[in-house]
Specification:
Blueprint: E1 2-9, H1 13-24, E2 29-32, E3 45-47, E4 50-52, H2 67-75, E5 83-85, E6 92-96, E7 101-104, H3 109-119, H4 124-140, H5 163-170, H6 174-180, H7 196-208, E8 211-213, H8 217-228, E9 233-236, E10 241-248, E11 251-257, E12 262-270, H9 274-280, H10 288-295, E13 302-310, E14 326-331, H11 336-339, E15 350-359, E16 362-373, H12 391-411, E17 419-425, H13 427-433, E18 455-456, E19 462-464, H14 473-489, H15 491-502
Helix pairs in contact: 1-8, 1-14, 2-15, 3-4, 4-7, 14-15
Length: 504
């Protein structure tokens, strides 16, 4: 039986972050990944040699002093990640189709505020107050500062107010409320269900700047591999924990892998979906209340994704000077509660993302689209698996993909004859590809008052982190790993490490 200081289960962005953080601090780490390649939803895939993003499309937090900037710096990979900022005319637009209203957000926190006040002069005070509250929440949240982060921080008053409650007190303008709640699509929870504080924590970095990354999610995977090469980190793909045995004094003595091998450790950290963790921990060591708590977690929204490329003639060189990435959010209504509801019928919220990608010396204009979807939409086919879907599912998928294509070319008429669909994926695709129980885009639905699965689990040497633990998305998943890393490393060692890495 082999022994490691730490075992990290799951190699998505949270797992890679935690493994690297612990490895940089002298720990021996075993990183397990159920798939044949590491990276989870960060990993790209290729069609006809063209790279496409699986689940990572854009993020905030790259600005100097931002949480993402600090995390990448602490891990020593900031110089390996190149942001491509979504700026310039038409780069970040929101369209409310029912209300026939279109808005273009500017880059930068103050610029965003000024822009919105220009659109809604009668609500200037409400807009100012909203952004004051967002900024205040983030400045008072210890977890947003790597030097102060804590596993058990004090809750803010805004943690007990829903986003809807705050917006309703600020203004009666439903279009403005829809625009201020627009980044709900980046955490997949209704404004009436998420706390204002968590919405602010997700949105703050996006108001500062929105950026894609050169090389997409693969850039993070390559950076992790490069920085971990000289550390005591062993990566085992196509491997997962199948059983926890020899439990004494509420500690797991041996972790049995699907390969039949057995390993032991001081700490085993699961960065996978909470319901997947529940299938691994021995039930006779779990309380009924714990099992019910995890079972009751609801999925966030899922995505039906379309991947395509704009065909160009031979004269097109794909110069960066001639192309700027953009994001267009098509929202059928300004009522976000209606849009993030499985009962909704008709067109769903759709984000259309354009980027310039390069592969094998060629440039491609890639257009990906993510449409809100729910596991309920695929209930008749939930028992099917990749490669063995019934005809009804394939027909539904084809019809939905064609409707999304129609919406894309309606928004960009110049693509009508040149946009070619390369692939499509439903929540069932993501479920099976990413070993997720429901294929949701942001893990569990993080509702107000909910106690997420984070930190120590019922067995004393097991822990939970990941995007379902703290906040959804890349930044939230990485934050959870730093917070848990501080607990495992001891505060003094963590503080010394952060002081050294972030001193400049």
């Amino acid at each position: 039986m082999r022994r490691f200081d730490e075992i990290v289960v799951g190699s998505g962005i949270s797992g890679m972050t935690l493994a690297l953080l612990l490895g940089l601090n002298g720990r021996s780490v075993l990183l397990l990944e159920k798939n044949s390649q590491i990276g989870g939803s960060m990993a790209r895939f290729h069609r006809n040699g063209i790279p496409f993003d699986t689940g990572f499309h854009f993020t905030g937090g790259f600005y100097e002093g931002g949480i993402l900037h600090d995390m990448l710096t602490a891990l020593g990979i900031q110089d390996l990640i190149t942001p491509i900022y979504v700026t310039g005319p038409g780069s970040n637009r929101f369209v409310f189709e029912r209300e026939e209203a279109e808005f273009e957000l500017q880059t930068g926190y103050q610029a965003t505020i000024a822009c919105l006040k220009e659109y809604f002069p009668a609500d200037a005070r409400a807009i100012g107050r909203y952004f004051e509250m967002v900024e205040s929440v983030c400045h008072r949240t210890a977890r947003m500062d790597l030097r102060k982060t804590s596993l058990f921080p004090a809750f803010l008053d805004e943690d007990y107010l829903t986003l809807t409650e705050v917006l309703d007190k600020l203004t009666e303008n439903r279009i403005l409320k829809g625009l201020l709640a627009g980044f709900s699509m980046c955490h997949g929870v209704k404004p009436a269900e998420i706390s204002f504080a968590n919405h602010a924590r997700v949105s703050y970095g996006l108001y500062q700047s929105v950026a894609r990354v050169e090389g997409g999610g693969d850039a993070f995977i390559q950076a992790f591999r490069k920085r971990s090469a000289d550390l005591d980190i062993e990566i085992m793909p196509a491997t997962h924990v199948s059983e926890c045995v020899d439990v004494r004094d509420r500690r797991v003595g041996r972790f049995v892998l699907n390969t039949g091998d057995e390993v032991s450790c001081d700490h085993c950290i699961f960065t996978i979906h909470p319901q997947e963790i529940l299938t691994i921990l021995p039930r006779n060591h779990l309380t009924k209340a714990f099992v019910e708590r995890v079972t009751d977690f609801e999925p966030s929204v899922g995505m039906f994704s379309l991947y395509g490329v704009v065909e160009k003639d031979d004269s097109w060189t794909g110069r960066e000077d001639d192309f700027a990435p953009s994001i267009l959010s098509l929202l059928p209504t300004s009522d976000l509660d209606e849009l993030i509801d499985p009962a909704r019928r008709g067109d769903q919220a759709l984000a259309i993302m354009r980027s310039l990608e390069r592969a094998s010396g060629k440039a491609y204009e890639v257009v990906n689209a993510c449409e809100v979807s729910f596991v309920e939409h695929f209930h008749p086919w939930r028992a099917s698996r990749r490669g063995k879907r019934p005809a009804g599912y394939l027909e539904y998928k084809e019809q939905r993909a064609e409707r999304i294509r129609e919406r894309i070319v309606s928004a960009y008429p110049e693509y009508r004859d040149s946009y070619r669909v390369m692939d499509a994926a439903s929540p069932l695709t993501f479920r099976d590809y990413l070993n997720s129980p429901d294929g949701s885009a942001y893990g569990v639905r993080q509702k107000i008052g909910q106690f997420n699965l984070f930190g120590r689990l019922p067995l004393r040497n097991t822990y939970a982190a990941g995007q379902s633990a703290l906040l959804p998305g890349l930044v939230g998943a990485m934050m959870s790993s730093f917070i848990l890393g501080r607990k495992i490393m001891e505060e003094e060692d963590y503080g010394s490490f952060m002081k050294q890495r972030l001193s400049s």
